[in-house]
Write a structure and sequence with these properties.
Mean pLDDT: 90
Low-confidence stretches: none
Oligomer: single chain
Number of helices: 9
Shape: elongated
Number of strands: 13
């Protein structure tokens, strides 16, 4: 894979170019694996001309990514025709564009690159769900917990479901218990809300744990993006978690709060407390209809701490 400096040099050349064709692409001299060309269009968006045989169907994800059927383009660099399956990333950020190229290049190396690419596309779709109504503090809490527990559970990222809509944040596996992550900005209490569905989950899965953290904003702290990048550097590049986290970072980069809101990582990590709540005394066998989607406020300090 070529260096980020070479990509910045390419972007500098692009910035001085005047397009002759509105549909043209300023093609880079560098290529990804499998002779895959890429370039920048007149809007400044990155377009990767993936191998034609990968095409299954067209799609658009949140007006951020799109894949269209194979077609022919005009190269603005040499006025020649070039063909491929265009995957467009509607971002003009140089760093984000290079990051996406790096991920795609890693996937193209794989023998089953076609399936790997579509798995990544699905992950981008899932990550886009978190982008809607993104809240930095709860996300930072989740990322802090996962990062803090990597020494105990090295494959934990594989089971992190950071959609903001899952019943449980980390699903259980042979290597880790299911874990729900809750946070508060109140330094003096651990009162968290659980939905009826989540309480039922704890009742049906007695090994499930709840991780509680305190979150504090800090002008000299780190962002959600930075802690995700730290996590990415610690996990296996061939793992599902690496691919999932790469897609999450790529998609959430469009949210200003993901990169701009800063938190005290040490404070959150040191505040991490694990509970193994027992809701056996709470009867939810036949709750009233109006309670099905309700949420209960629970003071977790009433439960004993659990030592992992």
């Amino acid at each position: 894979m070529f260096s980020s400096k070479l990509y910045k040099d390419f972007k500098d050349k692009y910035s001085k170019h005047k397009f002759d064709n509105a549909e043209g692409i300023f093609i880079s001299d560098n290529k990804l694996e499998r002779n895959t060309s890429f370039g920048i269009n007149n809007n400044g968006y990155l377009i990767i001309l993936l191998p034609e045989k990968i095409y299954r169907s067209s799609f658009t994800i949140k007006k951020l990514y799109s894949l269209l059927q194979p077609r022919q383009f005009i190269s603005e660099t040499n006025n020649q025709k070039i063909k491929g399956c265009p995957f467009t990333y509607e971002s003009v950020k140089t760093e984000s564009q290079y990051s996406l190229l790096s991920v795609l290049n890693r996937l193209l190396i794989s023998e089953n690159y076609n399936d790997k690419l579509y798995q990544f596309f699905e992950l981008l779709q899932q990550a886009s769900l978190r982008r809607d109504g993104f809240k930095a503090a709860p996300f930072f809490s989740e990322a802090t917990v996962v990062y803090s527990l990597l020494n105990k559970f090295p494959s934990l990222v594989d089971y992190w479901r950071s959609t903001g809509k899952a019943i449980i944040d980390i699903i259980g596996s042979q290597s880790n218990p299911p874990i729900e992550i809750k946070s508060t900005t109140n330094d003096h209490s651990r009162i968290h809300k659980l939905s009826i569905h989540q309480i039922r989950f704890f009742q049906e899965n007695p090994n499930a744990l709840l991780a509680s953290t305190l979150v504090r904003r800090e002008p000299t702290g780190i962002s959600c993006k930075e802690i995700c990048l730290k996590m990415l550097s610690k996990i296996d590049q061939e793992s599902k978690g690496y691919l999932t986290l790469s897609g999450l970072i790529q998609t959430l980069d469009a949210c200003p709060e993901f990169s701009s809101e800063l938190f005290d990582e040490g404070f959150s990590a040191n505040s991490l407390t694990i509970f193994k709540p027992d809701f056996s005394q709470l009867s939810l066998i036949q709750p009233p209809a109006w309670l099905i989607s309700g949420k209960l406020e629970i003071d977790f300090q009433a439960f004993p701490e659990f030592d992992l």
